[in-house]
Amino acid sequence: xxxxxxxxxxxxxxxxxxxxxxxxxxxLAASGLNLVLAARSADKLEALGAALSARHGISYRVVAxxxxxxxxxxxxxxxxxxxxxxxxxxxxxxxxxxRFLDQEIADLRRRMILNAGSHLELIHAFGRxxxxxxRGGMVLxxxxxAAHGIPNLAQDSSAKGYLLHLGEMLHHELAxxxxxVLVVMPGNVDxxxxxxxxxxxxxxxIRPQPVDKAVREMITAFLxxxxxxxxxRMMRVMVRLLPRSLAITTNGRMLGKAADNIAERAxxxxxxx
Length: 273
Ligand SMILES: NC(=O)c1ccc[n+]([C@@H]2O[C@H](COP(=O)([O-])OP(=O)(O)OC[C@H]3O[C@@H](n4cnc5c(N)ncnc54)[C@H](OP(=O)(O)O)[C@@H]3O)[C@@H](O)[C@H]2O)c1
Known about the structure:
By secondary structure, this protein is of the alpha/beta class.
């Protein structure tokens, strides 16, 4: 089987300061890859890079960018010039539960850039670089909800849907150029996003999958040349068994409750001071 190091000496990871991106950084560094670590939290990225460099002897570069801003992807691309990048893990993203019309258009636009537009810029720029060097790989982190959309997360699940479709098409289109593309559709991976989204763990139908295990599955699926992956065997079984209409309504109800939980948290914070 192809090794993860056979794509080139450097990998770019967005959203590397936490969760899935951080686990990718740990596992790719352990394989000996040098890393470009991108997210907003420069201090976390610097601490992670320094720790991985000390442990595995790799080189790293930190790029602090807010990928919800229109020029941020270009800044990241520019910061990698001169590095022989062979792997892109385009992973940064988020969601804000709540009714679509209750959200401000400026916020929806920013998350459209984060969850779709920045991926487009990175995929296009690195895609051209990979084709020119005759080899490359992309792991694109979408979401399980991208497959059907989720009420009360309508904008973010739709933007993730764009990434799912673009990535899956490019899996086929770029194969002949030596560029491998995997789209990951996490739905229940144990990262801080579960709490950020306001989802109560007791509302989850299945216990969340440990993030290191999920990322090991992602790397294996990528190396096997798969087009898409839903991490977690139980999640894959659930996806097969649950009719689309039921998936939409049950997830919509869960995200509706999550929006209420966030509103309640804000109310308690405001009361406290
Ligand atoms: N865990 C799951 O089950 C699950 C389910 C569905 C989708 N996903 C997707 O998986 C990806 C990784 O999420 P995670 O689960 O690992 O959650 P996480 O622990 O919250 O990590 C999210 C990462 O994205 C970065 N990020 C967020 N907003 C950003 C911005 N404006 N600019 C640059 N970076 C930004 C964060 O870094 P900073 O805050 O430092 O910027 C962080 O490194 C996301 O795209 C998420 O939507 C995960």
